[in-house]
Structures are given as structure tokens and as C-alpha cells.
Design brief:
Length: 349
């Protein structure tokens, strides 16, 4: 209890240190350049301080703490926002775990990457995607509190802005970002490489780690991908991509959309697998109206989530993947969405 009080006092006297840095590291294990290439980047000054995060119990960065971000919906698919800690049961494997921290995750910083497929199958839809994405960020993005990166891909990944907390920079990216038509699908599409690299170099990269350390909080991390789900040239397998998302605690949302007039349709099985494994959702809009609705649904979920943190009771740390389960025994009519598990710490006893 004394430790918690001390942590709360520390949070009250330390303002959030905010970053807007575009540096990323190259990934030595990717042999064919699926790592990020960057367009021109301008130096930017640190953003102004945003609202402080407040919670009854502060969620701190602890080496053994496992946090689970989850959403709850009723039978009409309306998000439930009145859930209490006592109603939730968390199991690590078959072992019930005490929930050390619980609360609405809306107050936590959001670290989010938007990844857009610019391959030939997406030729005609980027203007509609851009408009819907801008509306989404206007609703959900809190300057000085949240961090956003924007990237696009064909057979390689292009980073248009690294993690930034400045609305002006985000607006500038959407204003200047244009899809250049190649007129051909022969370049290929490296979907899994793009997602893996965005997680590895942006959402879990150096800048993200500095945000975590300086804020003394556990930000929510999410990735939204706009694509038809067709991968033709990736070096990374789907399982490797979901494993990387689990290790970085990233939730993946997919908006499956393509141009059926030129190339094959949307691969719903691939996108659905990525999202289910990481606790996200997949959407398949058929027109611009449904595209805006998909973004609206994601925004509503991101603002209705909970976070539950626990300290695993097992003493062995072998780096293996451990399944977790969340249950709400007293409310059987509810649906819970969360990631399937976590990787245990390695080399600790």
C-alpha cells in the first residue's frame, strides 16, 4: 500500500513528458528490405503537455506485471462501460489470478499506428479511406496525450510520420499523402512484413519505449490496417506477426477493402485471424458509408475498453506463450474481446 501511495505521489508531481520523434531503427533480420523507408522528415518541437492520467490505482510499469486490455459488449453489440473489478475473473492457464489493477483504459495514453495498403488492388479507394481516417482521428486523437504514426506499404513499408502527439503534423500528413499509381500489381504486397515491421520498429521501437519509460504508465497500443488482406511477398508468416503483436501487447484492427474491378477480393480469413488472436476486430465495408462506420466502431471500442493487470503466480519464467481467459460469471449475456495470451518473462526464477 505504501508503494502504491508513493507511486501516486510521483505521478502527481511528474508531468507527462511528451515526444514527437520520427526516428526508427533498421531491422537487421529482414533481408529483402521489408523494413521502413522514410520520406522527408522535418524536425519538430515537443508538443505541449496534455491532460494528466488519473485513476484510483495507478498502473505502473513493472517487470512482471501483465496487463490485459479488453472490451465488453452486450447482445445488441453495445459496449458495456459500467463493469466493476469484482465482476471479472482472470485466469492464467487454469489458475485464477488476483487482479492487481483495474479500470477504464480511456484515461491511458493511446499509441496507435495506421497502416495503409497502397498496392494495385487499392487503386481507387485511398481518397475515401483518407477522409474516413481523418474523421476518426478528429474524434479520438488527444494532442499531448496520444501518439500516432502513419505508414503505407506495397512490397516495402514507407513511414510517413513516426509517433507524434501533434495534431498539426498528423493533419499535414493526411493533406500531403497521395497514392502514386503504378498501374500494375507486379510489385507485390507484403502485408505481414508491413504489420510486423510497424510493431517492431514503431509501436515497440525506441520512441515507444521512451514514451513508456517517461510516462511511467502502460499505454494502450493498437494498429489499424487498411488492406484487402492479400499477401504475395512477405518473409514473415502470419504466426510470427501475431507473436510479435502479443509480445508488444498490440491489438490489431483490420478494415478489409479492395477494388474488385481489377484484382481478387478480400481475404477475410487472414484478416480475421490477425484480429481475433490479438483482441481486435475486422470489418468489411462495401461503400464509403460503411467505411466511415467501421472507423466509428473502432473509435467507440477504443474509448470503451478496460485494462486489468495481474502478477503471474508461477515462479518459472521460460519465455513460453501462456493462454489467458477473462470471464464475467454473473453476466452471461456479455461478449468479451481480448488477446489470447502473453509471453512469459524469460530467464527469471
Amino acid at each position: 500500500m505504501t508503494q502504491i501511495v508513493a507511486q501516486m505521489l510521483l505521478l502527481m508531481i511528474l508531468p507527462l513528458s511528451l515526444l514527437a520523434i520520427d526516428e526508427v531503427k533498421s531491422h537487421p533480420s529482414l533481408q529483402r528490405q521489408p523494413s521502413i523507408s522514410q520520406g522527408p522528415q522535418n524536425p519538430q518541437s515537443p508538443p505541449k503537455s496534455g491532460e494528466d492520467w488519473q485513476q484510483d490505482e495507478p498502473i505502473q510499469l513493472e517487470s512482471n506485471l501483465v496487463n490485459v486490455v479488453f472490451s465488453v459488449a452486450d447482445r445488441e453489440n453495445r459496449f458495456v462501460t459500467d463493469l466493476k473489478k469484482e465482476e471479472v475473473v482472470l485466469l492464467d492457464g487454469d489458475t485464477k489470478q488476483p487482479i492487481a489493477f483495474f479500470g477504464r483504459s480511456r484515461e491511458l495514453p493511446l499509441v496507435l499506428a495506421l497502416v495503409v495498403d497502397f498496392s494495385g488492388s487499392q487503386e481507387f479507394i485511398w481518397p475515401q479511406e483518407r477522409d474516413a481516417a481523418q474523421t476518426f482521428f478528429n474524434e479520438i486523437f488527444r494532442p499531448g496525450h496520444d501518439y500516432v504514426a502513419v505508414a503505407s506499404f506495397r512490397n516495402t513499408l514507407q513511414l510517413h510520420t513516426g509517433l507524434t502527439s501533434q495534431r498539426e503534423r498528423l493533419d499535414r500528413v493526411f493533406k500531403t499523402l497521395l497514392r502514386i499509381d503504378t498501374g500494375s500489381a507486379r510489385q507485390g504486397t507484403a502485408l505481414y512484413d508491413a504489420i510486423f515491421t510497424t510493431i517492431d520498429e514503431v509501436l515497440d521501437g525506441k520512441t515507444a519505449q521512451r514514451i513508456l519509460k517517461q510516462n511511467h504508465l502502460i499505454p494502450r497500443r493498437a494498429l489499424i490496417v487498411l488492406t484487402d488482406g492479400r499477401d504475395t511477398t512477405s518473409l514473415r508468416a502470419p504466426a510470427a506477426t501475431t507473436d510479435r503483436a502479443h509480445r508488444a501487447l498490440v491489438t490489431i484492427y483490420a478494415i478489409g477493402i479492395g477494388d474488385d474491378f481489377r484484382f481478387s477480393g478480400v481475404n477475410q480469413a487472414a484478416l480475421g485471424g490477425l484480429c481475433r488472436e490479438t483482441g481486435g476486430r475486422d470489418y468489411y465495408p462495401r461503400d464509403p458509408h460503411e467505411l466511415r462506420w467501421a472507423f466509428k466502431e473502432i473509435a467507440e471500442e477504443l474509448t470503451s475498453q478496460y485494462v486489468a493487470g495481474f502478477y503471474p503466480s508461477e515462479t518459472i519464467r521460460d519465455g513460453s506463450f501462456r493462454e489467458i481467459r477473462l470471464e464475467i460469471p454473473g453476466r452471461k449475456d456479455l461478449t468479451i474481446r481480448y488477446r489470447r495470451g502473453y509471453f512469459a518473462k524469460a530467464g527469471q526464477q
